[in-house]
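=== Structure Prediction Worksheet ===
Name of assembly: unnamed complex
Input type: mixed (protein and possibly other molecules)
Chain count: two
Listed entries:
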Amino acid sequence: MIKLNPKLSQKLSYTLLCITVGLAIVPILMIVFVIVKNGLSAISWEFLTSMPKNGMREGGILPAILGTFSIVLCSIIVTLPIGVCAAIYLNEYAKNNLLTRIIKLAIVNLAGVPSVVYGLFGLGIFVMFFRLGVSIIAGALTLSIMELPVIITTVRGALSSVPHSFREASLSLGVSRWQTIRHIVLPNAIPGILTGTILSIARISGETAPILFTAAAFYVPHLPHSIFDQVMSLPYHLYIISTQIPNMPKNLIYGTALVLLMMVLTMSCVAIIARIYFRKRRKW
Amino acid sequence: MSKIEIENFNLYYSDFHALKNISINIEDKRITAMIGPSGCGKSTLLRSINRINDTIEGVCTKGKIKISGENIYNDDVDVDFLRRNVGMVFQRPNPFPISIYENVAFGLKVNRIASDKDVINKIVVESLKAVLLWDDIKNKLRKSALSLTLEQQQRLCIARVIAVVPRIILLDEPCSSLDPVATRRIEELMMVLKNKYTIVIVTHNMQQAARISQDTVFMFLGELIEFNKTEKIFTNPLKKETSDYVTGHFG
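=== Predicted Assembly ===
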């Protein structure tokens, strides 16, 4: 074995660590660079607010933006209450017994299921069994199931970050367990719940596989009327125009990608800002 | 009549036998101090009197603790009502991160003890006066409770307890995070409060026990070693362990 002198080995390992950090940053910079460079020319007010024209080779992507927006909105309306309630149960009430351990294991595993499997599941259950058809609601429910473990995990984290001493203080005033959760734990966990939710929204906005069979349409000539409508969605639209349409202008493809990327990044930024804001206000 | 009768009380943290067959009678309107080295079970015993230990997983108990003759470990006891009767102040001041006013009003509002705004205002003011905090903060009731000094926060925590009208107040090392001046002032407050409430205090500080309490419980390794008038414990203890501890030979 070679024995390096300590100074040299310190320098070597420092350099190595710097390189790995660089490797982590470079891809995101390159992605943003390539997409902005190729797509920026397509971005205009018209592109964001009009219907596709000429077999999607011209015009805008409004239906896809609205489609993604409505699927994500419906999905979060469904997941958030269920996720918060489940997290409250697991964090505040569940005893550490076999059943609880099985539930926790199930949640971890649910988070590990490949997204295309959720898509097939949604097709079988929501589209066919419940006869919702390929629709916003079927896609939203599929995404909800996929997002549930993430929401539960982040909400649990937010709940357990509320100091135990607050709970004890409240209980020792004769305040019941539920009232303690309602008036002390939840208000103090809201920042964490909020940032977790925004990050989840960002994540599901870009999901393609779960809505592939459950909500997304190749082309819909009108904007969605109800939650039982099929819609276009940004990620699926991106897939179609990059692979299925011959002679597709390149800048429109990258422009669509840029819109999707910006949507997700903006939400991540909002989450970061919210977290900084709440952390400043929090004094414990 | 004794206010708190502890009879053959045992407590286990899963396999660990933390309290071994404790029996004491704690008298009304006096200050009872619990002393002993770290890990002797004094806090555990204190926390058994309002059943706040129930929130810790794996705790089980045997024996009785009676308050005014009723065993608080009976199945039909309303634990929330018990805790309202038996207030508790903790080691570190733990006001809620809301306004001073809301801290004191919290128990009243959530427990629906009072709903009329004037009644709540009156109780809040009285409670803050009772802990001698009113004059310092009467102009900043809407400020965050966390803006107060540690001593003021601890007074606020006592006021919060007093607002829900308990009969017993348990204090778990209430001065351990305070400086000596603040400690003395909190001690003075306890002397005033003992005229209205039964007070049980756990303390690491033997001088504090000697200064403020009338009765002292000395515990060691989960067992009750000696329970007597405070002056007896400090001047003429019956057991060798007690005398070794109060003279500073161990602990």
